[in-house]
Amino acid sequence: MVGSTGMQINTAQDLLKSFEHALDPLYGQREAQSLARMACCHLLGYTLTSDLFLYLHLPVNQNIMEMGTHWMAEMAQGKPIQHLIGRVPFAGLELRVDARVLIPRPETEELAHRVQHRLGSGFKGRILDIGTGSGCLALACKRFFPLSEVAAMDVSAAAVQIARHNTKANNLEVDVQVADMFASLPKALDKEYDVILSNPPYLGKDEYNSLDKNVLGYEPHLALFSPSADPLACYKAIACICQKHLATGGRMYLELSEYHANATAKLFENDFFTVDVEYDLQGKERFLMCESKRATLPLPQIQ
């Protein structure tokens, strides 16, 4: 069979090379190779890349060739492979993803593990995830802390549908509600929380042109960009939620924009929080880890 790149596909090696050739113009050689291996492993049923390379000589059946050709065309237009596969691994979970939610990034999984380390395996308090999207952080917390009470919220009803699906699919108990961080919390969430965490929209409008085509075209802008000209708007809203809903001795953990990390930290630098800006594995200022003595906080002005 001739693939969408015009290359003849007979073996797994042909399939791999066709993917690399199709994706190189959009992603560059290194990322194209990584995505091609991921696609071929999934299509051929291999868990490990080493298995793929071990059996590159084997023939590929007609159904896989046709599916592979379809995937090449979609991915060459920028469609994320996670949307084609329909799910992603995250902190030991399998999460459904599609165009309604952000694809969880490695940095967000790193935040989940940092929270796990900070709280310890025996933690059993009340946790709120603000702007949950796929539910990744909330579900990871429920997996890490099974005795905890976990709630999650998102302004997008479509995202809440996905998060609730992931809750059921992973057999975890998380209360997911439609709620706007810029408004009062609904009755179901109107409680005190021991931990508040979030990976909120933090990209500024001026960063629009810096994003890849596969992000801009296939992931929800509502979850990517700050809702106003102020890139800190969501963090100010979260600060207001903490004022009302963070329990005595509570903790707050946030994912940050590397470009606004210090400005974000300043929102919480006062006598009531210990504030640590931590670097991700790429050496970027990515996480804000706050621990509270709990007292009345000045409300940041939301613009």
Mean pLDDT comes to 89
Query: How many helices does DSSP assign?
Result: 12
Percent of residues in beta strands = 15-25%
Helix content: 40-55%
Radius of gyration: 21 Å
Q: How many domains in all? A: 2
What does the largest sheet look like?
Answer: 7 strands, mixed
Q: Going by CATH, what is the homologous superfamily of the largest domain?
A: Vaccinia Virus protein VP39
The CATH topology of the largest domain turns out to be Rossmann fold
Oligomer: single chain
What does this structure look like?
This protein has helices spanning 12-27, 29-44, 49-54, 62-76, 81-85, 106-119, 136-144, 157-169, 213-216, 221-224, 233-245, 261-268, and strands at residues 87-90, 93-96, 126-130, 149-154, 174-178, 193-198, 246-255, 273-279, 285-292. It has 303 residues and is an alpha/beta fold. It folds into two domains: 12-77; 87-292, 3-Layer(aba) Sandwich (Rossmann fold). It has a seven-stranded mixed β-sheet with strand order 5-4-3-6-7-9-8, with helices on both faces. It has a two-stranded antiparallel sheet with strand order 1-2. A hairpin with a 2-residue loop joins strand 1 and strand 2. The radius of gyration is 21 Å and the shape is elongated. Residues 294-303 have low confidence and may be disordered.
